[in-house]
Here is the input.
Amino acid sequence: MHITTEENDIAEVLFSEEAIQKRVKELAAQLTKDYEGLDPLMVCVLKGASFFYADLCRQIKCRIFMDFMAVSSYENESKTTGVVRIIKDLDKNITDRHVVIVDDIIDSGLTLKYLKDLLSARKPASIKTISLIEKQLGLKDRIVPDYNGFTMGDHFVVGYGLDYSDYYRNLPYIGILKPETYR
Ligand code: IMP
Ligand code: MG
Here is the structure.
């Protein structure tokens, strides 16, 4: 793949920087209401959720704690394998804590389902999930996030933390790649 200027590889912007920031604020306001007094542990799923997580946490007005996990379900390609590898586990014990898993995007939903099951086994006081984007694929029995930013159709998107082979993460908006970019 030859990367020129990353912006040149974007065919269409689906969610602008402004739209993302507006929605993140709304989600943060909801979380502030729901978690006031509960001191939730916000779990970032690296690397895709990194910008979403940082912006979301910064807008939450009650006390929160932060921790990070790194997982991999994609091996340098734009299709799912169903295999979730834990690259970095949480630093903290989550038993009796209120946990919120912050993820970037739900495609097959396998990653988030796997993580939720894994962390549930550690007996948190509660566990909820939030995703920035949910792909509408009509999949039966897919995990439904407790909070979600945007829904979209079956596209492969990059930007705002989302990558294609680790490229494009730092674009401030979310967009669809030009077909000729996949080589
Ligand atoms: P799932 O397990 O199939 O739901 O895939 C979840 C993970 O795959 C996400 O956390 C992303 O890291 C990655 N992923 C899925 N769809 C996209 C996409 O459209 N662009 C970039 N990454 C994606
Ligand atoms: Mg990824």
In short: Residues 17-152 form a domain with the Rossmann fold fold (CATH 3.40.50.2020). The chain is about 20% helix and 30% strand. The chain has a mean pLDDT of 92. Residues 77 and 165 are 6 Å apart (CA to CA).
